[in-house]
């Protein structure tokens, strides 16, 4: 053993010991019991209804990009809920622990959390929200929508896609298990050198943090490769770059960032691991290392990462605004260029996270200017959206409300970001809750865009719309929560309240903290409204069924195939004539054409290998965290052997014959005809999708 291990180590269990299970913790122990009971109920129900085979065949072994996307979104929503509970716990501690006379319970002097536990809560909250809630939610939408929008039958690498999902699931499981086995990191979501070194953080918290992040980085990178390959290689005939739907462009720019920046994080984490496991000294000053090396490496990834999560959200807004304004997106080309510009500049600004490091005025000025440059392409987007709505026929349904909410938050977060980008201001507000308020404004843009997208694309995936009343109720409650929590936070930031306080020394801030706690109550109501929304929508789904073009005003390819989308996406691949193909076809009265014959198509087989590999990476992460070396070796060997075997077997795929396709398509058309009366019921003779001649553009009809 190269590094001294406080707390002992055994060959069989590594650092794991009974004392690591917090069975006496007054919060975790009841939670654990609740989780176990919940798990037994769920597993029992699956067994009772005999759903195991269905679950295994249709979901756990699937390589269908839509189902994988849905599972990504489910993971994201579960983790969003977990992250929300963390946020609630932080706010509750702060409203309680104000001033020397505040009471304390559960072994805490003030409030109900000790500084150690409080640190774990905000560290887990930050990491989970960005990397295991926002990221899987966005990757899920990219998974579902990108292949259909480019007119493909699946991702370029369906098996790799499943692998990406199960590795992400392993990461989520690893951070969740840190609740009940050992502790999580308590030094913030981005950690600091040298406090993460073994001497200062002797527990396993930092190790959980290292391996959770490594797994997320791996899963997201695999997903990114796949999405890029799909966009580059799998576009439908006729879809030149200038006709790419805007959400696809957004996904492209985001994944360029992911693929180029995640390696920096992986290197940083590798070096931290070398310090902690092998006694290296990359980040300890005394031994020739450099503390700031870590901070630089982390933010060289960390800053591009925030644009990795906001660019797909921008793409979602760019889909929702045109549909519900009944106008084409204003400034398509500038929108694309702006995304690329943001992706490019995202590389040059990382130092704004530590202006106070003292690099000197020239360095700070250079990074300040680079940071502010991002305001130009972002402003282009803001104005393009405004012009898209200008003189449009606006529908203020729930999806549109979420998108407009996102736009408002973007303006607030963007302006406060500009303030932070000025070093002279930054010196005063760095490390205050003003920064926290800035980034929540920005990160909530993503949450708003995601809920807008849930409403917008739900009918495409499941074949029925969500309930408008409850969706709007949720929106207004959520927005009231946002205002009540984050407006006082901006004010407190100006008053000098620092971030991450488990004890608030200034009793003058009590009333602000009270308002914020009330905001949390309102947020909780909106979470409740979300559950009711799901319940009511599923209950009434028969009433809300939709045809292919659920909104009647959408513009891109995904609305040209059935809802729910069949497993092969398109029976016959569409030919793309125009940028907004569906809008163009609708205008020309050819949006209802049906193919007159079907050819055989080739689809990939399901595989159980991906989920098993995901399980093994979880075991590996757990074994590394607890230094159970034999288990590391066993799981690593199993992973390698399984990958070798799989690579020899390959996947020949299977054929769906034209006759089968015809049967399924006719069934789908019949269903749609029932829903929409005459809609989609008149086949146009000779309208062969895939035959460009049938769709030759009539130039006089161009806008
Ligand atoms: C999605 C996430 C996201 C996004 C998009 C942004 C966008 C921006 N951020 Fe933010 N930021 C974070 C997430 C995000 N940030 C996080 C998580 C942290 C802290 C992490 C931590 O410490 O824990 C942080 C921290 C942070 C800091 C460090 C603060 C500190 O610790 O002291 C700074 C400093 O410059 C900064 C600046 C900016 C700027 C200038 C933008 C710009 O991109 C904003 C551009 C947008 C606009 C300006 C609005 C629209 C434009 C117009 C309408 C045109 C007209 C306007 C002008 C010409 C100005 N951010
Ligand atoms: C739903 C509402 C949310 C609430 C009430 C909430 C609340 C909080 C609070 C109180 C803090 C600690 C502030 C401090 O340091 O004093 C915090 C930190 C943080 N939050 Fe949130 N949050 C919410 C949503 C989100 C979302 C959606 C994201 C990301 C997508 C996010 C990312 C973060 C990050 C990165 C930190 C910093 C953690 C750290 O300091 O290490 N939050 N949040
Ligand atoms: Cu930044």
From TrEMBL:
<feature type="transmembrane region" description="Helical">
    <location>
        <begin position="122"/>
        <end position="146"/>
    </location>
</feature>
<feature type="transmembrane region" description="Helical">
    <location>
        <begin position="362"/>
        <end position="387"/>
    </location>
</feature>
<feature type="transmembrane region" description="Helical">
    <location>
        <begin position="628"/>
        <end position="645"/>
    </location>
</feature>
<feature type="transmembrane region" description="Helical">
    <location>
        <begin position="399"/>
        <end position="425"/>
    </location>
</feature>
<comment type="similarity">
    <text>Belongs to the heme-copper respiratory oxidase family.</text>
</comment>
<feature type="transmembrane region" description="Helical">
    <location>
        <begin position="293"/>
        <end position="317"/>
    </location>
</feature>
<dbReference type="InterPro" id="IPR023615">
    <property type="entry name" value="Cyt_c_Oxase_su1_BS"/>
</dbReference>
<feature type="transmembrane region" description="Helical">
    <location>
        <begin position="470"/>
        <end position="495"/>
    </location>
</feature>
<dbReference type="InterPro" id="IPR023616">
    <property type="entry name" value="Cyt_c_oxase-like_su1_dom"/>
</dbReference>
<keyword id="KW-0408">Iron</keyword>
<keyword id="KW-1133">Transmembrane helix</keyword>
<keyword id="KW-0679">Respiratory chain</keyword>
<keyword id="KW-0479">Metal-binding</keyword>
<keyword id="KW-0472">Membrane</keyword>
<feature type="transmembrane region" description="Helical">
    <location>
        <begin position="515"/>
        <end position="536"/>
    </location>
</feature>
<feature type="transmembrane region" description="Helical">
    <location>
        <begin position="244"/>
        <end position="273"/>
    </location>
</feature>
<feature type="transmembrane region" description="Helical">
    <location>
        <begin position="158"/>
        <end position="181"/>
    </location>
</feature>
<keyword id="KW-1003">Cell membrane</keyword>
<feature type="transmembrane region" description="Helical">
    <location>
        <begin position="329"/>
        <end position="350"/>
    </location>
</feature>
<feature type="transmembrane region" description="Helical">
    <location>
        <begin position="70"/>
        <end position="90"/>
    </location>
</feature>
<protein>
    <submittedName>
        <fullName>Cytochrome o ubiquinol oxidase subunit I</fullName>
    </submittedName>
</protein>
<dbReference type="Pfam" id="PF00115">
    <property type="entry name" value="COX1"/>
</dbReference>
<keyword id="KW-0249">Electron transport</keyword>
<dbReference type="InterPro" id="IPR036927">
    <property type="entry name" value="Cyt_c_oxase-like_su1_sf"/>
</dbReference>
<feature type="transmembrane region" description="Helical">
    <location>
        <begin position="208"/>
        <end position="232"/>
    </location>
</feature>
<feature type="domain" description="Cytochrome oxidase subunit I profile">
    <location>
        <begin position="50"/>
        <end position="577"/>
    </location>
</feature>
<dbReference type="InterPro" id="IPR000883">
    <property type="entry name" value="Cyt_C_Oxase_1"/>
</dbReference>
<keyword id="KW-0812">Transmembrane</keyword>
<keyword id="KW-0349">Heme</keyword>
<keyword id="KW-0813">Transport</keyword>
<feature type="transmembrane region" description="Helical">
    <location>
        <begin position="603"/>
        <end position="622"/>
    </location>
</feature>
<feature type="transmembrane region" description="Helical">
    <location>
        <begin position="437"/>
        <end position="458"/>
    </location>
</feature>
<feature type="transmembrane region" description="Helical">
    <location>
        <begin position="27"/>
        <end position="49"/>
    </location>
</feature>
<keyword id="KW-0186">Copper</keyword>
